[in-house]
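> @MW can you paste both from yesterday?
MW: sure, first one:
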Amino acid sequence: MTEQYLDKLQELEEENRILRESIRKREDFIRNTFGSYLTNEVLEDILEDKKGLRIGGERRLVTILFSDIRGSTVLSEKMDAVSLIRMLNHYLEEMIEIINSWQGNILDFVGDSIVVVFGAPRPNELSARDATACAVAMQRRMKAVNEWNLSQGYPEFSMGIGIHTGEAILGNIGSFTRAKYDMIGRNVNLASRIQGYSRGGQILVSDETLAAAGDLVVENKAGAIVVRPKGIQEEVRLHDIVGYAGKHLD
């Protein structure tokens, strides 16, 4: 009886070992796969949630950042494919590091554009501040990016950024076999349109973002511009951000 009991105990211990190893491999896979796109806090939320990534959505106040390389079409025509991808990957590595440090969550890469949300999946009352500070850090990093480009024989390029704060619908869109965490809504479209108005090296933010970002944000003394974005019924005032907390773009 004792021998049978010990054999059964050993079997259970072996099963537990295999189960723990399986869980560890799953967590390692999630971290390795999504670690470059999600903050550590969001990764831990995913790993700790027993229900995993659930299909569904919620309405949330967030700050949305769109960035885009200027003149990327010309770059793609002048550079060979291997060099272009190597240059873009280096640029994205630099931007991802900054975005993660400011608690931003990258939802998508659309060509050379980056789509980032602040304040989701985990709420963040300082999403406007973090997004604006992140944008300043991103633009400041472009000097180092272009220095690396020149050292490799690649051309310099610039980036435009647009930011807007407002409600969006966020959640896992798709099915249980294939899903994507994404956001939709008018304010997402507006953030994208704002980015389209920005020049290379510029950061444009909406009234809503500027009001929520705090006193450490530095606006261009030239003042705001008023635009009428496509698909948006009302006029929108955009502010040219040139610094944050004593750190300026030039």
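MW: second:
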Amino acid sequence: MEKMWKGRSEVATDKLADDFNSSIGFDCKLYKQDIEGSVAHAKMLAGCGILTADECAVLVEGLQGILSDIEAGKLAFDPTAEDIHMFVEAVLTERVGDVGKKLHTARSRNDQVATDLRLYLRDESENIVALIRKLLAAIVEQANKTKTYIVPGYTHLQRAQPILFAHHLLAYAMMFIRDAGRINDAVRRMNVSPLGSCALAGTTYDTDRMYTAKLLGFDGYTLNSIDGVSDRDFCVELLSALSLVMTHLSRFAEEIILWSSWEFGFVELDDAYTTGSSIMPQKKNSDMAELVRGKTGRVYGDLIAMLTVLKGLPLAYNKDMQEDKECVFDAFETVAKCLGVFAPMVATMKANKDNMYRAASKGFINATDLADYLVGKGEPFRSAYKVSGKIVAYCIANDKVLEELSLDEFRSFDPLFDEDVYGEISLAACVQKRTSAGGTGIKSVEKQIKFVEEFIK
């Protein structure tokens, strides 16, 4: 395919340099957005009298034909084309003649690619948020099933206090809601049109940038033409948001891996989301969760790569910025795949109520409630805390749990203990008493479920 910039140089580009320079192998993903932007640009040129209505009609029909043929598999991308923009323009000119050469009036590939990328990322961000909502629906489904299941809550990976399993799950729901909010916020800042910035300085033609912005669903246009073509902070912001999605998926995956082990036995993953061993027939491996955990580093790498590309670039456009696309393409595809498998994995896992309760019965996770009991009897908290610590040490030495101590044993540590202590330190009571806003009590958990359900709607 002949280079559009051939006039400046008559010497053919070296084949290796040509291949190195070409981006058609990956930016072909932008074909739909490139054609959409070109249609809007043609309509604007006609509206401003730069093209005739007939010329515009020919261009729009030709562009729509290219789009249809690509999507129908009738038109393959030419690997000799430098990029998707040159490919579309060359095919258009071949089909409609010299009028196709007028399409690039009052624009540059610099503002064209910046526009295409924003349109693409806007679409992909919408898809990611939709996938997050599906994961939230799976979490809510599990929370509703397990909102009475008592499980040990952990700090430092040590059993700490009894909580409802649903409360633990809903912590992740809140994280994913914020993730969706971050993506939507980034899209709002990104949703301005660079089209019309041209190479960097704008154009001498009397164009209407707001018209193309509205046609393409943008909220406005970039107010500085240099900024419009030379920054990719919107890529960084979205990659950062996606990295946090992966952080939360990875933490959740790690817990699912632990919970599904024999040592915990809190959940069992559906066979559809596990694998076996080639030599150990008893194995049921949580490979999907492990892969999500592993792919987190990949998305982090995309973010760091994008930051590194931008960090030393002078204004305005530089060829380095061609490296933006593979980073964001990879990150969005990776996150979409991870969310796509994670939601059904969560939805189909089975919680083991008995194993959870057995684990909660050990580790003295009601010791705080024992101290609170004494505070309720008038003991200062620090004194009550010390008494409770001594009782725990006594239980460990005598291989007992708190509920197994006799009243006389309790009173040997503090005379304020009475028969009602047993009801106060039962696991069910420990959970039910936590009625503070956002706590693990059933009413709080039900409010959280309702909040997440409202977000999903």
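> thanks! Residues 109-145 form the longest helix (37 residues).
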